[in-house]
Write a structure and sequence with these properties.
Keywords: Membrane, Transmembrane, Transmembrane helix. With 70 residues, this protein is mainly alpha-helical. The protein has two helices and no strands. It starts with a helix and ends with a helix.
Length: 70
């Protein structure tokens, strides 16, 4: 439980740093590519998307195995 709280706090701090970096990039000239801003803004959530995809992938392939066992 303590490790989870510590990890969550690190993730929140890291996302806050990345969000402030992304907001600093908003002051770049208009020719600066906007997809970099999107990347910096959504990067903290990328790991969650990958984890969810991986869990769904495991669930999809483990359900037939579980149904055979049960």
């Amino acid at each position: 439980m303590m490790a989870s709280c510590h990890t969550d706090r690190i993730l929140v701090q890291r996302s806050a740093v990345q969000f402030s970096a992304a907001s600093d990039l908003l002051f770049f000239p208009s020719f600066f590519p906007s997809f970099f801003l999107l990347f910096f803004f959504f990067k903290p959530y990328l790991q969650y998307y990958l984890d969810c995809f991986f869990l769904l992938f495991l669930l999809f392939f483990s359900l037939p195995l579980l149904s055979n066992i049960i």
